[in-house]
Amino acid sequence: MKLATFFASFAALIGSALPAAAQSFDERINQIFADYTGWYVGFIFAPLPGTNFSWIALWLVVGALVFTFYFGFIQFKGFWHSIRLVKGDYSDPNDAGEVSHFQALATALSGTVGLGNIAGVAVAVSIGGPGATFWMVIAGLFGMATKFTECTLGVKYRNEYQDGTVSGGPMYYITKGFKERGLPGGPILAVLFCIFTILGALGGGNMFQANQAHAQLAGVLGDYPGWITGLAIAGVTFAVIVGGIKSIARVTEKVVPFMGVFYVIVSVIILLMNIDMIGWAFGQIFAGAFTGLGVAGGFTGALIQGFRRAAFSNEAGIGSAAIAHSAVRTKEPVTEGYVALLEPFIDTVVICTMTALVIVITGVLNFDAETGLYVWNAELGRIGTDGDVTGVQLTSAAYAQAFSWFPVLLAVAVVLFAFSTMISWSYYGLKAWTYLFGEGAAKEIVFKVIFCLFIVIGASANLGPVIDFSDAMLFSMAIVNIIALYLLMPIVRGELSSYVERLRSGQIMRYKD
Amino acid sequence: MTQETYVVAHEDAEGHDVLDYAAAQAAKSGAKLHILHVLEWSPYSFLTPQEIEERHARRRAEMERAQEHIIDPAVKRAEAAGVSAEGEIRYGAVVETIVDRAEKIGASMIFVGRAGGNSFSARVFGSVPLGLAQAASIPTVIVP
């Protein structure tokens, strides 16, 4: 079995993990990774016959478009209502002390805002060119409707227990919703979703984060073996999720939102410093979106990279947000859908776009002024950059053009973002785990320990196999989740029309003006 | 004339001074007491997914504890002093919530203890009695 092999190698290597042996440790992990996950990654990202457009990207985009039309452009029509809900205008003061819409949104966001916004965008722009930004924004805007759908269902079909706690997410709406509509296959799909969620939690929600956190620390502190970072982060994570040391988690949860806001402010300042270049940058983005500007893969290359990164970053359609939002106490499931649709907007349309704009505007991507095209590095399969960096290092280099101290701050931010994303995903993974194996302290500990071990593995492996595997797992969740969303969307429509009607008739009151 | 209501901002189980003073005043004027305990809460604070899941259960436990250890003994104490009294527990920003509740129930006076006014955080962020002195729309008595 795959996992058993992982652990056997891991145990054998950890015993001899002296600094001198560290390089071979990293390499062995990589090899195991590529050998055991390569075939599945190949399947998930297989192109449609005769094109280089992967079927999974089409799957997500078609889903987002279907939900957008089915709910009558809810993300635009309902945008201000979403803001009012988050402000608490519709919150009953008697419910004070319960989780507010703002808190639900902030917590869900701290799970999604992270490396996708910093590292992922840099990868997308360096492979797909500036045009990838355009498609990323488009995918973000449509993805808002997907989030609306999944989070409404998440609240509607959650389990509420005697002690007042709740469990929810796609596995619950798949089983209960399918049963309600008389559809077959609910239990099987739910189990499948949980397996993918556990692997996605260990991949995108864990190893990718650990990997990029290490890359950033190594960039600032000088190169050193990944397992050192891995052990350190695993230790802190262990203290939080197993030891229940909430103070660490609480500090992170407080610092992360400020980091996010600060990141946007710094981005805006850099854009203002280069205000004369903004027109040019937008020109590059629009031209690149439709022509590719000489980037290999051209228009579709930009499109695929943009869509892929948007999906990876804002997680619309993946189903993770439905788990996070379902714990909120609200009488109207639709209100949580409204609130959740702001996530792709903040995550992708605002934060990802900032990163992309800064990378384009600071000129860290090598540009040939004579031909008006980017300099393609065929060997690396991306646009050439000084020092041939990508991912976090590229973003770091772009921001360093304006502020030399930024890489240090970014290193701190990346580690914190990575950490908060890991905490969120350990929760999503745990919910899937307990759905499969039942609740119970011993069972939960098993998952939490596995989760911490994967942090070490993630920090040790190089970027390629890890990022591919994590993408593949997250997209697998989306396959199951979007099938369920199609089958259950009439239920959401029923909820929505009832809510809108009561809102119009004044039955649902505003408590604040 | 309808019976007047005095709001007593009741911070903790030890804060008898303000309660006894308010009860004595209420007994003289024939007013009734509305004993209010506010649990500091902001809808804009940040929680982990785990805390969100447990929030409802925890809120219930907090309310029960406050009822049992703070409100019930206080109401009993006031009644023993011969004053009719009712208790209430609210979540929110303390000063704002006291002012808001006092207005809603049409209270004619607020009683608050001075306790805690000398701590470091009170010096930096302002204490409840100082906040009430500034924000209350009805006469407020600060009991030393």
Give me some keywords for this one.
heterodimer; A: 513 residues; mainly alpha; Amino acid/polyamine transporter I; two-stranded antiparallel ribbon; globular; disordered N terminus; B: 144 residues; Rossmann fold
Describe the fold and architecture.
The complex is a heterodimer of chains A (513) and B (144). Chain A is mostly helical and 513 residues long. Chain A contains 21 helices and six strands. Chain A has helices at residues 2-15, 22-44, 55-70, 74-77, 79-87, 101-112, 115-128, 131-156, 170-181, 186-221, 226-241, 246-273, 278-291, 298-314, 320-325, 333-340, 342-361, 391-402, 406-437, 441-460, 463-504; strands at 159-160, 166-167, 367-368, 373-374, 376-377, 382-383. A two-stranded antiparallel sheet of chain A has the order 1-2. Chain A has a two-stranded antiparallel ribbon with strand order 3-4. In chain A, strand 5 and strand 6 form a beta hairpin. Chain A is globular, with a radius of gyration of 22 Å. Chain B has 144 residues and is of the alpha/beta class. In chain B, helix 2 links the parallel strand 2 (32-40) and strand 3 (85-92). In chain B, helix 3 packs across helix 5 (128-135). Chain B is globular and about 50 Å long. The chains are: A mainly alpha (513), B alpha/beta (144). Chains A and B meet through helix 6, strand 2, helix 12 and helix 19 of A and helix 2 and strand 3 of B.
Q: Give the domain tally of chain B.
A: 1
Quickly name the level 1 CATH class of chain B.
Alpha Beta
Q: Which range does the strand content of chain B fall in? A: 15-25%
Say which CATH homologous superfamily of chain B is assigned.
HUPs
- Share of β-strand residues of chain A: under 5%
Major β-sheet profile of chain B: 5 strands, parallel
Mean pLDDT level of chain A: 83
Q: Which H/E pattern describes the elements of chain B?
A: EHEHEHEHHE
Q: Say what the CATH topology of chain A is.
A: Amino acid/polyamine transporter I
Distance between the termini of chain A: 59 Å
What kind of oligomer do you see?
Answer: heterodimer
Shape of chain A: globular
Helix content of chain B: 40-55%
Strand order of the largest sheet of chain B: 3-2-1-4-5
Biggest interface: A-B, 36 and 24 residues
Tertiary shape of chain B: globular
Largest sheet of chain A: 2 strands, antiparallel
